[in-house]
Model the fold of this input.
Amino acid sequence: MSSTPQTTKAEQYARALIEAAQKEGRANTDLVQVNHALKFLPEVLETLASMHNNNDMELLDSVAREYKNILDNETDIVQVTATTAVAMDDQLRTAIRAKLERELQASIYLNERIDPSILGGIVLEIRGDRYDASVRAQLANIRKSLATTYIGSDEQ
Done:
């Protein structure tokens, strides 16, 4: 099998990455991150490269927070994170988006997360507020209510 300049270059990058990762004992972790990086848009990669070149990588958490703050406060789009126990189907996704757009009178960007530990229902995070209608939260409320009730108490 002949090697093209492109595959040779790709192998050089891969070997450099493996060598650096192995020095830190995290070759598999770096592979996971490279696979995630495949989804990054060019402007994200360019910003990360610029931050790296300027030794500003410690600002990454702050940049992410500011990005979200600017989106929340200076655009007509509201970012909503919806967490469900299983993946939403198109019908539920459309219903949630429509209801939130009516209530918030804004366009919605819906981030979906799956967390089986909530057991069912939905948790919404909107502009820093959390609305928990999960089964886990409902069970916790029932447990709390039962703990404060004295069943069979001799006290009058």
